[in-house]
Known about the structure:
Its EC number is 2.3.1.183. This is Phosphinothricin N-acetyltransferase. It is an enzyme of class 2 (transferase). Keywords: Acyltransferase, Transferase. The chain contains four helices and seven strands. By secondary structure, the protein is an alpha+beta fold. The protein has a single domain (2-180), classed as Gcn5-related N-acetyltransferase (GNAT) (Aminopeptidase, 3-Layer(aba) Sandwich). A seven-stranded mixed beta sheet has the order 1-2-3-4-5-7-6, with helices on both faces. The chain is globular, with a radius of gyration of 16 Å. It starts with 5 loop residues before the first strand and ends in a 21-residue tail after the last strand.
Amino acid sequence: MEQGTLIRMATKKDAEELLDIYSPYVRNTSITFEYDVPSVAEFSRRIKDTLQMYPYIVAVDEGRIVGYAYASAFKKRAAYNWAVETSIYIKQDCRRKGLGKKLYLALEELLKRQNIINLNACIAYTPVEDAHLNNASMAFHEHLGYAKAAHFTKCGYKFGTWYDMIWMEKMIGEHPEVPKKVIPITEISYDF
């Protein structure tokens, strides 16, 4: 799959296809702490809002979207401008084929061009794996160079179970005395 997979920027028109990927994570897992599947209109708004400042990319294989990744503000205050939160979702039957790595590396490249330095990932974690959550996301992020930065105990409740949350981080640049201005994704040229 990975060889012929095309990476491109998402559009609002992708909302329904992306929601088809995201919905099973909401309904059947604790990977996301969201309880209800958002509407297509809400998902379209999320894509549009993200693309005003950050990348929102999709992987297309044989004409269908099979995964997506995006960045969002880590915190809204100006001092945090050089840090983002990263997120990724892969179609259930397309996992463990190198697609996540390909998406995340493309996302990192775009974020470097924006002068982003810190990548942060908020990840559901369980000390005891169950039908709704294993720790594959933590292992995936470790494999891509993220390190655990924080651990919050039993802070998320879903499917009758209390889950932990960890934050993992990765630095993709130096922290200069005076950082370069962060450039909105709308002003970045890219060619996947």
